[in-house]
Amino acid sequence: QVQLVESGGGLVQAGGSLILSCAASGSIFSINAMGWYRQAPGKQRELVAAITSGGSTNYADSVKGRFTISRDNAKNTGVYLQMNSLKPEDTAVYYCRAEVYYSSYDPAPSDYWGQGTQVTVSS
Fold first, then answer.
1. Whose CA is closest to 118, among 23, 36, 9, 8?
2. 50-82, pLDDT tens digit by residue?
3. CA-to-CA distance for 55 and 71, rounded, in angstroms?
4. In 1-123, which ranges are E strands?
5. How far is the first Cα of the chain from the last one, in angstroms, to the nearest whole number?
């Protein structure tokens, strides 16, 4: 089993910053891509940012230039999301996702999600 634990959410005023962290643990051989998604009330879950094991990144247009995703290079089992210039529309539950290989024999990775962390941006 694999667990993803997020931390760092909270309440912040518009224009402020937060850093989200996600740590993966359990039966992990390696992790391919990791990412952050968010879901606001009444809306579908959407991709915020993703990063591959090689460091390639992808961002939603709405957060480009404000958010930065990075990996924990030491262990390669963690991912961070630096969020700057936060806006009220960034308010959502943020989820961490990881594509996990249990062994070198796995033909494809398995998807895991964290429990989510609430980010609220007040105007």
1. 9
2. 999 999 999 999 999 999 999 987 777 899 999
3. 8
4. 2-7, 10-13, 18-26, 30-39, 46-51, 57-59, 67-71, 78-83, 92-101, 110-113, 117-122
5. 40
What tokens were used for 57?
């990144």
Backbone conformation region of residue 10, classed left if phi is above 0, alpha if psi is from -120 to 50, else beta: left
Residues 46, 27: Cα–Cα separation, whole Å: 27
Distance, CA of 9 to CA of 118 (rounded, Å)? 5
Residue among 43, 38, 17, 50 at smallest CA distance from 92:
38
In angstroms and rounded to an integer, the radius of gyration of the C-alpha atoms of the chain is 14
SS3 state of residue 2: strand
Q: Show Cβ contacts of residue 106 under 8 Å, excluding neighbours closer than 6 positions.
A: 29
